[in-house]
Write a structure and sequence with these properties.
Elements: H1 2-5, H2 12-19, H3 33-57, H4 60-73, H5 75-81, H6 84-87, H7 94-109, H8 112-130, H9 143-155
Helix pairs in contact: 3-4, 3-5, 3-7, 4-5, 4-8, 4-9, 7-8, 8-9
Length: 156
Amino acid sequence: MVDAEGVAAVGVRSVAAAAGLSHGAPRRYFPTLASLLAAIAREGVDDLDRVLAPALAGGIDDAAVAYWRFSAERPHMFDLIFRHDLLDGAGGNLREVTRPWIDALAERLGGIDRAIELWSAIHGLCVLARTAAIATTGVTVDERYVRAVAERLAAA
């Protein structure tokens, strides 16, 4: 539902209807919409981890491209995963999965500051490209561009 229609389409009633349940049934498992969204986001984080963890074992540029691909292929899930304003305290323990990503980058790059700089740049490219915020610049953000930025930042 998130991948097809976005976060706004997800509600306790809509999920119940899609699952063929009574409208109150999900409340037994998810007392709030935030807890439901956190469970969905956890599935998305696990999916991203399945592609990102092996890529992190390779090159920094491989990890950047894997991250880029996920954001391009599953933009609504990508958005949900990083909606900490909605998800904080709602369950799912998302940071227990995402923290090793930043730790792996920090180890490879020689520090947490450089890891955050790289992640911020790649995450920003994902968001800026998808929202067409840089469309008028003449720059085409694609996998090749993301790889080049990651290589440049990793070498700095």
